Here is the input.
Amino acid sequence: MIDPLKLQPVITAGLTTLQSSAPASTRDGVNGFGEVLSKAVDAVNQRQAESRSLTIGLVSGQHANIHETMIAAEKSSISFRLMVKVNQQILDAYNATMRIQL
Here is the structure.
């Protein structure tokens, strides 16, 4: 039987860069949400830059590792699509909140 007090959180691939090492005062909602979004956008940007540099290296003949290049391109694509989906969900939540009549 699993002891519920000793469960460790599941870390999904690609989201480990979103973990905040900020003090608890900034994680309580003051700057926490904006920092998480900023780090997520930075992570997506970093994946796109890595994919771009590997693609340029492959095309220019600096390396011949097409597998690594294609994996980086796919990671970049998936990260970007996830970011767009999260953005749409945030906007939908905002719009739903604004439609609430008091």
Remarks:
- The helical segments are 24-27, 32-60, 66-98.
